[in-house]
Design brief:
The chain is an alpha/beta fold. It has helices spanning 116-125, 139-142, 164-171, 173-187, 201-212, 231-239, 259-271, 301-307, 348-351, 364-368, 375-383, 387-393, 403-407, 414-433, and strands spanning 21-23, 29-33, 43-44, 51-52, 57-60, 69-70, 75-84, 90-98, 150-155, 191-197, 217-222, 254-258, 277-283, 291-296, 317-320, 327-328, 342-346. The chain starts with 20 loop residues before the first strand and ends with a helix. The mean pLDDT is 94.
Length: 435
Amino acid sequence: MAFKLHGIKLPERKTTEGMPSVKMPAPETVTIPTAMHIGTPVKPVVKVGDEVFVGTLIAEDNEKLSAPVYSSVSGKVSKLTEITISNGNVVQAIVIASDGEMTPDANIKKPEINSKEDLINAIKNSGMVGLGGAGFPTYAKFNTNKPIDTLIINGAECEPYITSDTTTMVERADDIKVAIEAITKYCGVKEVILGIEKGSAEAQKKMEELASAIPNMKVKVLTKLYPQGGEKVLVYHTTGKVIGNGMLPIDVGCVVINCSTMANIGKYILTGMPLVERCITVDGASVKEPKIVVAPIGTALKDVFDFCGGFKEEPFSVLYGGPMMGIAVPDLSVPVLKQTNAILALTKKETSVPKETSCIRCGACVTNCPFGISAPAIMKGYKNKDIDAMVKAGAEICMECGCCSFNCPANRPLVQTNKLAKALIREEKMKEANK
């Protein structure tokens, strides 16, 4: 795998940079899916008519890789239904009619942590998943017998528009500190590195002040390039270690945790309040009043946009996440998820893509790929349904950052084809395994 120190420069468009976060009031209803993580969807433990409070457990599955789900408002369960989530899967969801009071559950209490096992259980019970977008249950990263030499905190918010992680680092340094201290104490971590992009001056200052108060912690200021926050790229640029194909960060002694994830772990340790709200960037040229909003999980995107004054003009596209790796939503009834870090309402001008033309074999896709993958070779293999060719070209290690498509002068759907290629490879491997 050939990592490259450079990436691509993107227009920042960070309208909300430097804005304080604003907490929105309780919406009339929330729709909370039972699958907001990589792994097995959890099962509802409430029924229609049940009274719930902020932090009440509403779904769990302790038998498999998963993350429990909690009510983000106080009120009553009004419906158990099914919804289509961002990956196209149909999952169960719990609809709660809010009473507007946002009353915390009286049973919430701080966890007792005296060992690594206690810490892992606390992180699991918090409902925490990767808040940078991946949604992997966080407790599983620490549930290992392999030594954790380095904890890498991801503060490299490299996509255009998004500033919610930067805001979290500015506003919640104390929560991050609590999480760092617990993890280093009970998991035997030798070094903590926080990676942050150059230019985030206030956040950098806050994190450097934090590092000065924590032994063996340092802040690594990274070049402002995309995809600096990609897990494998971040590990390489902070430690020099290479995570090969089929390997995880723990295989090189590292665990990577998003800074917002760390802040919410710290909050749970301090208060016992599980993950029930998200700090999200609300931006895009269609939005009247771009803001950093703290919204209850399950809030409909329409309610969040209304809190930001609605639209100046009808959006051409609405995304979960940023313009490089974000996912277009079908309508504004879809909810804020645990892993939602931004919602963007973009105009046609912001999303216009020139017409696709023939490949001119310039190599810009390979040159700008952090891993040196040949997207044209993957595309050729996909068209021929040639599994071996796609694997040889590196389809399985593609992190779908979109650098290839962004730099393609022929405007070919390279990253989209890479995604389809990976899905086809997985499908064929499952067929082989089931023979």
